[in-house]
Amino acid sequence: ARWVYAFGGGGADGDASMKNLLGGKGANLAEMSALGLPVPPGFTITTEACVHYYANGKQYPAELAEQVKTGLAKIEEITGKTFGDVANPLLVSVRSGARASMPGMMDTVLNLGLNDETVEGLAKLSGDRRFAYDSYRRFIQMYSNVVLNLEHHMFEEILDDHKDRLDVHVDTGLTADDWAAVIKDYKAAVRDQLGKPFPQDAQEQLWGAVGAVFASWMNDRAKFYRRMHDIPESWGTAVNVQSMVFGNMGDTSATGVAFTRNPSNGDNRLYGEFLINAQGEDVVAGIRTPQSLTKAAREEMGDTAPSMEEAMPEVFAQFKSVVETLERHYRDMQDIEFTVEQGKLYMLQTRNGKRTAKAALKVAVDMAAEGVISKEEAVGRVEPASLDQLLHPTIDPTAHRDVIAVGLPASPGAATGKIVFDSDAAEKAAAAGEAVILVREETSPEDIHGMHAARGIITARGGMTSHAAVVARGMGRACVSGAGDVAIFEKEGLFRVRGREFKAGEIITIDGSTGEILAGAPKMIEPELTGDFATLMGWADQVRRLKVRANAETPLDAKTARQFGAEGIGLCRTEHMFFDDTRIAAVREMILADDEKGRRAALAKIAPFQKADFVELFTIMEGLPVTIRLLDPPLHEFLPHTEEDVEAVAAATGLDAAKLLRRAKELHETNPMLGHRGCRLGVSYPEIYEMQVRAILEAACEIAKSGKAAPVPEIMHPLVAKGEEMKYLRDLTDRVAKAVLEEQGVDLKYTVGTMIELPRAALRAGDLAANAEFFSFGTNDLTQTTFGISRDDAGKFLNAYIDKGIFEKDPFVSLDQDGVGDLIRIAADRGRAARPDVKLGICGEHGGDPASIAFCETVGLDYVSCSPYRVPIARLAAAQAAL
Ligand code: ADP
Ligand code: MG
Ligand code: MG
After folding, report:
1. Which pLDDT tens digit goes with each residue over 229-267?
2. Active-site residue among 52, 467, 636, 846?
3. Which of 132, 391, 800, 832 is the S-S candidate for 122 at Cβ 3.0 to 4.6 Å?
4. Could you give the residue range(s) of every CATH 3.20.20.60 domain in the chain?
5. Burial of 406 by CB count in 10 Å (0-12 exposed, 13-18 middle, 19+ buried)?
6. Which residue among 28, 93, 139, 213 is best mutated to probe the pocket of ligand 1, counting the most ligand atoms within 8 A of its Cβ?
7. What is the mean pLDDT of the segment spanning 205-224?
8. Alpha carbon distance 495, 486 (integer Å)
9. 108 C-alpha to ligand 1 centroid (Å)
10. What CATH number does domain 4-243 carry, 3.30.1490.20, 3.30.950.10, 3.40.50.1980, 3.30.70.100?
11. Would you call 866 a catalytic residue per the annotation?
12. Considering every ligand atom, which ligand is closest to the CA of 338?
């Protein structure tokens, strides 16, 4: 088998299309070589070799040694140098490079091949002893750290001691002899730590570094990064062995990084930094302050140090043209690493640059305008989930700010919500439609579901790269980390900060862009939805077939949804209207009633509120379809549970405390998820659904009569399992509707349908379709009932399933396309067979998840419905699914 692919000398064995085999870095080095760009020659050991290595008890493939030898010989031929040769030594870098770029996650070793003898050869060849020793000490330090697992700071301390002794402050202040002294101490330290000398044999060094790169695929950083970005462990990493070029050979040498456009705002201007007389990581390491690439950028920054354009104009001109070639060739913004050795330019890496959502939009829209890519390609270029970063409100700068603490601005956006202290509570509250801020000492992977459920996250400990910060940014959640003044007393359910106390349930606000934590809910400004955003969304809308609706019941949510381009409401959960303070008393009275007469009397009190809610919603939606789900949760959810709560409610409402408690106990269910809920309420207490249907139609008639666009109510019955159930509910709905329309003298269209959330409903969809004009797949419950897993309890064991590879993803976040997906396919087919024009949609969490939306496109659903803030994400994902 072939494990090694060469590049350099104006050609290559591989190309950019071979990322899976050669890794991103190796494939692009090959591509650049073949384009005739100046790339130091080298070879790539394939990702398959890494996979083989791990599958065979960390043994290299048998043919590898021979193929590496051939690869080295080729580099030697092109460079005219010899690996391990004392007089004319070839030095190489050993670089990791997986399929997906994992910046900084894995290890690289530079200057490999140096030892006590070759360093003298390098000194003679270059005529620069200082350079040779500088390279050697870098190599010892890097190799010791990456391959021999010695602590970095041990070497830093030795170097600092020398600097103190010599009274110099920058590395460039050390002479050749100074470096020689440092090297002596470095080697002594290595021998001291390991009980054996620093390896002098070049071959031993090479294989040590290859092994370390493979090992770095399994280090904790890399594992964590993979989990965050859904990168499978099975991919493995490639290893690139490449002849060294030296940016540290004096003032005509340099090293740098560049983006062809600005990665934070997308401006079409070369962006980057470089350092004269430096090597590799110096630019990012922050030891010296890097200089600008262009004169314009230098002037803008007010820097005094000359830009690359000014310091080395000829190389810069060549560099600029290479960079333009690369962007044109790859048809995307490039992230580039380069080195200049004594006035000669070398390209060391190129890849499609990572960028903020804002930059992604601008680059995509600009490139389409420049004619580099098509509009469809532009639509495909923006990661739908990343729009989240742009869609969050910010605090109105004129609002009063009661700042209670300041932490680190870990993830942008502002969020208001109730304080919760643990992730399960966050998830529960969010499922009940509440906005919460999760407040934790620090977060761990066990908190992912809580962070996902929360609008914002505060941690008392941890920095900008803490778990909380990294995960929050990935999810687009606002986050303030390291708010050290916040003292959390989780057991007591409160935190104290600067002499004030905040309890669970109190409202606070965080500004993830400034790090501020504020009491209360200051006024927010909605995000800008114009410019590039509007342009790209317009293109997306031209492409997509799926309609996008929102899950909304409050006027605010409905307005937000429309602003974001929702084409209707896919799920209005009426129980949220029942919880409102002004009507919960009547709801409880209804639950406490001993008979139908009592229930009807209480329902009559609720009816006007319900009607007013619908009038408001229909008004906002201006004739767009609105799917209203009739009462769904078990009635006990409306009753107080603890004795304290019962007394408080009794005192406040004049209801009888003993009766309240008795009824709460009666209604208690062992397994409420599968209990007296959904349309089962409508079957046992038809008067509840009758009231709701009446309220919906009276509201619709009122709007129609006022001359405004007539609403299209879609009345939805939850948790239906049987055809007979659906027929009963259909008849109930039609009977009430007919009465209302006659009373009102209005001819109005409405439809009746069901949520599909039980496997039986999916299997018998044909029976349901006889009386249902639409299905909405309630995939939250359908996932629960298909797996027999309760979403509220899954947190305790789901991580083990994900860790063990049994679940690839949380099925409540991304639809289980095989199992739950099969039920959806079956239901769609059987539903359409019985009623060809049955309207099909999906509501619930999955309606806003791009992978799930792609699935909905393949099944041919009519629409997806998601939370208001995810509407643009869904619009873009739907467009990409249709491309
Ligand atoms: P990462 O994936 O972490 O960016 P790289 O393999 O790209 O690691 O190496 C880091 C840096 O080392 C590069 O940016 C480059 O400056 C330097 N480097 C790597 N290989 C060579 C080489 N052959 N010659 C000179 N510098 C190199
Ligand atoms: Mg790199
Ligand atoms: Mg449900």
Report:
1. 788 899 999 999 999 999 988 899 999 999 999 887 889
2. 467
3. 132
4. 544-569+617-630+687-882
5. middle
6. 93
7. 92
8. 6
9. 7
10. 3.30.1490.20
11. no
12. 1
